[in-house]
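Exercise 7b. Backbone tokens:
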């Protein structure tokens, strides 16, 4: 049996990823440790910020409106975020109970939010503000004990050496074609800067590989790039939002706007791997600041999303799109604070836990940590609850808040719980001693 499985495996992997079939990646000890810490952290804040924020219409405006990239680039000379205060950003993130920040070091428009020797189109050299946003943020994160991750776009809508043109950014007025080689070197040089000048970096979060979907044999040189990252900082986790199953060299698997295994937004049909997982989502509808997007999800919905993610072994990376002046939008600040208040009370049932996976439960999810199992009841119009828990012997069931005892009975099928009253909380958590 084993003899036949091997060739099948190789055939499949060769078919689907011809470029990576030969590459075996062995993560280092410190990398494996960083993965565990990443999973323990559970909650991060995504920050989409750049010169697009000034247009108040999201980070895709250059593509969406087919703007001329040279005209667009002049925005940089008006970028003066007078209210930018890294200490304030980090304190909002801490107040939210989040443990890390992932910020757009360079998005698809190509503008770098950090000082780069390899392109003057950056926050220090191209703007009157003249400050290295990432340096100030990194210093503050390290000071306040928040991990820092860098989003980095593989795709670029303005450079002529991002070639061939992909599926997006075809209307930005590029007339000449450069050499892929110089673009690849440029990216790697910037990655060296990001991993050398800003202290310890928790992850590099790539995005944009899907732009070359139409050329399946397109060689992004990921293997070498990932090796470069790991050689500079072995504990830095490599993530890639390519919307397919992870490639060798990647340390976590990410999902966009969906919980692992779900595909409501249409970007996540891929299988769920055994790597640590993360899903990113917006508070309103857009990533970059969009002035007319006031469709914020309720705090309850956001907390439910965090809990459901934990119940699927995934972290939540929740986005904020700061205003062009550098402030977090008021609504974002308010909701982050409310999430933090909830986590202050319930954090023990989220941080450091792992999912107790089982058949999907329409009422909620379960997480566990050492000898505690946490039953998160998100929606239940009944006092009765059944969990098919057979391997673990339950010794006690109490409400997590108040520690009031709850009646239960365990038999060979699982555990039958009878709640004292119908749940009304955002998340009614039961604590089971096992
Ligand atoms: O940074 C945020 C977004 O700007 C970026 N990722 C998040 C985290 C992003 N936005 N959309 N997408 C990624 C996915 C884009 C998918 C599409 Fe397409 C682009 C749909 C149509 C054009 C991919 C390429 C699927 C078809 C072509």
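Sequence design result:
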């Amino acid at each position: 049996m084993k003899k036949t499985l091997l060739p099948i495996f190789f055939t499949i992997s060769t078919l689907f990823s011809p470029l990576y079939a030969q590459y075996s990646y062995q993560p280092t000890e410190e990398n494996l440790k960083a993965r565990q810490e990443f999973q323990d952290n559970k909650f991060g804040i995504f920050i989409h910020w750049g010169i697009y924020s000034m247009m108040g219409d999201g980070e895709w405006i250059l593509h969406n409106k087919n703007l001329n990239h040279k005209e667009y680039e002049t925005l940089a000379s008006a970028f003066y975020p007078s209210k930018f205060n890294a200490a304030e950003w980090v304190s909002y993130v801490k107040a939210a109970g989040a443990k890390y920040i992932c910020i757009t070091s360079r998005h698809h428009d190509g503008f770098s939010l950090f000082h780069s020797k390899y392109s003057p189109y950056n926050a220090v050299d191209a703007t009157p503000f003249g400050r290295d946003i990432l340096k100030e943020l990194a210093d503050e994160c390290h000071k306040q004990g928040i991990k820092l991750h860098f989003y980095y776009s593989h795709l670029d809508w303005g450079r002529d050496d991002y070639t061939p043109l992909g599926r997006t950014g075809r209307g930005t007025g590029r007339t000449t074609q450069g050499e892929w080689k110089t673009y690849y070197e440029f990216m790697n040089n910037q990655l060296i800067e990001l991993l050398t000048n800003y202290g310890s970096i928790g992850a590099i979060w790539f995005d944009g590989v899907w732009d070359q979907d139409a050329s399946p044999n397109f060689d992004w040189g990921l293997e070498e790039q990932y090796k470069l990252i790991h050689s500079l900082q072995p504990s830095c986790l490599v993530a890639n939002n390519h919307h397919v199953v992870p490639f060798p060299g990647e340390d976590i698997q990410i999902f966009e706007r969906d919980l692992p295994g779900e595909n409501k937004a249409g970007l996540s049909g891929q299988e769920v791997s055994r790597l640590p997982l993360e899903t990113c989502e917006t508070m309103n509808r857009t990533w970059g600041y969009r002035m007319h997007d006031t469709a914020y999800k309720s705090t309850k919905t956001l907390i439910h999303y965090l809990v459901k993610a934990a119940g699927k072994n995934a972290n939540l990376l929740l986005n904020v799109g700061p205003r062009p002046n550098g402030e977090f939008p008021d609504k974002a600040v308010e909701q982050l604070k409310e999430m933090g208040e909830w986590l202050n009370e319930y954090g023990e049932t989220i941080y450091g836990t792992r999912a107790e996976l089982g058949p999907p439960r329409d009422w909620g999810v379960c997480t566990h940590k050492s000898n505690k199992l946490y039953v998160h009841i998100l929606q239940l119009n009944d006092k009765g609850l059944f969990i098919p828990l057979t391997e673990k012997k339950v010794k006690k069931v109490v409400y997590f808040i108040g520690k009031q005892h709850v009646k239960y009975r365990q038999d060979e099928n699982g555990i039958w719980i009878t709640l004292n009253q119908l749940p009304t909380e955002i998340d009614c958590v039961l604590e089971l001693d096992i």
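Instructor comment: The chain has two domains: 13-353, 364-433. The first helix runs from residue 2 to 16.
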